[in-house]
Specification:
The complex is a heterodimer of chains A (329) and B (276). Chain A is of the alpha/beta class. Chain A is built from 15 helices and ten strands. Chain A has two domains: 163 residues, D-Maltodextrin-Binding Protein, domain 2, CATH 3.40.190.10; 158 residues, 3-Layer(aba) Sandwich (D-Maltodextrin-Binding Protein, domain 2), CATH 3.40.190. Helices cover 43% and strands 17% of the residues of chain A. Chain B starts with 13 loop residues before the first helix and ends with a helix. Classes of the chains: A alpha/beta (329), B mainly alpha (276).
Chain lengths: 329, 276
């Protein structure tokens, strides 16, 4: 009956949130933060830092972490949320369509994006297969581990990084799609999520793991040695944060959102491997990241990328998307 | 004839039955509706959101059909294997005595207690590319079967065990004293008595295998047309905003499972009556 659980997960989450909410009602203001799993540790430090400020006094938080798509669906189904922090903009769009997040959520200095990262290659110790470029990933005899972009919204960054990198090297749209087909011939397994892809790679499968820089850095900080290669061309991953309509009613929620872009919070994000979006922090010696030769975004029109809406339809539509053919061979 | 509890429906009897029958029945049906029937109805309702044509398109997509076929074949295989091994384990636990038997008896239920994703992770470490035994079964159908065998182990064992405990040994002794071989005793006396319980266990194991997600998602590798089972395919459809497609495939999976369960139940019923 697993399937049923899956379909009704949002309802279950809702029930859990109601219980948690009732317990915490004693304090003055309680905000609900619904986030994807990776920044959990960062928020674990940012929330106490916020509570130490004047604006954050007497504010307590209900926190919920999970896969970005699942979290968005849970909120869409009624999980109470004041602040949503998700891994990619389309998950926020889901909430805009439901009327939960106002459509102007990204109209601020940072376009609604609170952290950045890039797609990198994690390789085996000493890089025995000499993986340096995107072309190396498509060579015969190389096994690449990446999550299934149909089950993992986050894995779509990997696919678009690969496509955009080809275009940035002067390839045509057709050639770039042919490259994706070749690349996915080297993908022996399709884990469901980024975390599971890491588990599969750790189990000894594959030569390269396509993942986010913050995951690779964070693993190293946690004592799991990972060696990673920053390709010359890669995509800028941008993670959105937004207030829901219920969050907008609380001045504390607005203050918290503002705090996320403060240098204090941006440094805490930087400590967990994210690239800070605040220039003053990103340019400080401690948080200065290596820059690839070409760094493009999901809106790089010159590379044929016209934003998530068009990319989702063209590449990841469940019946007509390019990736259906690429993965199905 | 001993019956196992899993599938049998007991009839209310006596004074309590007459007095509380209406209330008990109402409560039972109300509870069943709330927990099972309403969610199932909602699932069927959402599967037909875009009409019958769309429903048919969803379930006949090559990848969906392949996942459905794999799920059903593997689940039947796992259920059949469980019928043999589960009965053997129950036999050893009831009829043999050895040091640590109590411990082994307790271990049988552990696959139920372990979060299935942990089971998948452990199996991947033990029988994956870095296997300490040099056995790499991961990312192929064998690994899928292994994970399902792990999570479905308790069903047949726990269904057969109580029946075997209550089985009258005098029948077997009588048969042996009349010159029957041990195998003949098992085949003609023990096995027919155990069969209904075995079938109950098999039905449960099959149903569990069909819906299993956590333990298989890591070790199978989810390769479309090779090791992708329906539960993983369905989760992909949900992630791709195709909730109606996910529901459609679920409904077909449920209908086929229901047919298999009914067939097992009918066979069990027929067998029980036939033997009497």
């Amino acid at each position: 009956m697993r399937r049923i659980c899956f379909t009704f997960l949002p309802a279950a989450l809702l029930a859990a949130a109601v219980v948690v909410g009732a317990q915490a009602a004693a304090s003055k203001t309680t905000l609900s933060l619904v986030a994807y799993s990776t920044p959990k540790d960062a928020y674990g430090k940012i929330i106490p830092a916020f509570q130490a400020t004047a604006a954050g006094k007497n504010v307590s938080f209900n926190q919920s972490y999970g896969a970005s798509g699942d979290q968005a669906r849970a909120v869409a189904a009624g999980l109470s949320a004041d602040i949503v922090a998700l891994s990619l903009a389309p998950d926020v769009t889901t909430l805009v369509k439901k009327g939960i997040v106002p459509s102007n959520w990204s109209r601020n200095a940072h376009h609604g994006m609170v952290t950045d990262s890039v797609v990198v290659f994690v390789v085996r110790d000493g890089n025995p297969k000499h993986i340096h470029t995107w072309a190396d990933l498509a060579k015969s005899g190389v096994q690449v581990v990446t999550p299934n972009p149909f089950t993992s919204g986050g894995a779509r960054w990997n696919v678009m990084a690969a496509y955009g990198a080809e275009r940035a090297q002067g390839k045509t749209d057709k050639q770039a799609i042919a490259y994706l087909t070749k690349l996915f011939k080297n993908v022996p397994v399709l884990p469901k999520s980024a975390r599971e892809a890491t588990q599969v790679f750790a189990s000894g499968k594959g030569d390269v793991l396509l993942t986010y820089e913050n995951e690779a850095i964070y693993a190293n900080k946690k004592g799991v040695h990972t060696e990673y290669v920053l390709p010359q061309q890669t995509i800028l991953i941008e993670n959105p944060v937004a207030l829901t309509k219920s969050g907008l009613k609380h001045s504390e929620a607005k203050a918290f959102l503002k705090f996320l872009w403060s240098s204090k919070a941006q440094k805490l994000f930087g400590d967990t491997g994210y690239r800070p979006v605040l220039k003053s922090v990103a340019q400080s010696a401690k948080y200065r990241f290596k820059q690839p030769k070409t760094l493009f975004t999901i809106n790089a029109k010159a590379l044929g990328l016209r934003g998530w809406k068009s990319v989702q339809y063209r590449f990841f539509d469940h019946s007509s998307g390019i990736m259906v053919r690429v993965i199905g061979h | 004839m001993a019956t196992s509890s899993a599938v049998t429906v007991a009839r209310p009897a006596g004074l309590a039955g007459r007095m509380g029958g209406g209330i008990a029945r109402g409560m039972a049906i109300g509870y069943l509706s709330l927990i099972v029937l309403v969610p199932l109805a909602a699932l069927i309702w959402s599967s037909r959101a875009h009409g019958l044509g769309a429903f048919w398109d969803e379930v006949t997509k090559a990848e969906a059909a392949s996942a459905l076929k794999l799920t059903l074949v593997v689940s039947l295989l796992v259920a059949a294997f469980n019928a043999m091994m589960g009965t053997a384990i129950a036999w050893v636990l009831v009829r043999d005595s050895f040091p640590g038997k109590g411990f082994v008896n307790a271990v049988i239920d552990l696959p139920f207690a372990l979060p299935t994703i942990v089971a998948g992770l452990v199996l991947l470490q033990l029988y994956g590319p870095n296997s300490p035994f040099g056995v790499d079964l991961a990312f192929q159908r064998t690994g899928l079967v292994l994970a399902l065998l792990f999570v479905t182990l308790p069903f047949v064992v726990r269904a057969v065990q109580p029946v075997l405990l209550e089985l009258d040994r005098e029948m077997e002794e009588a048969a042996e004293s009349l010159g029957a071989h041990r195998f003949e005793v098992f085949r003609r006396i023990v096995f027919p008595n155990l069969l209904p319980a075995i079938l109950s266990g098999v039905a449960l194991a099959f149903a569990r295998a069909v819906g299993e997600f956590g333990s298989v998602v890591l070790i199978s590798g989810n390769i479309p047309f090779k090791t992708e089972v329906s539960s993983v395919y369905i989760s992909g459809q949900i992630e791709s905003d195709n909730a109606a497609g996910a529901a459609a495939v679920s409904v077909v999976l449920l209908l086929i499972s229901l047919a298999v369960l009914l067939a097992i139940g009918a066979f069990r019923h027929w067998k029980t009556r036939h033997d009497r």
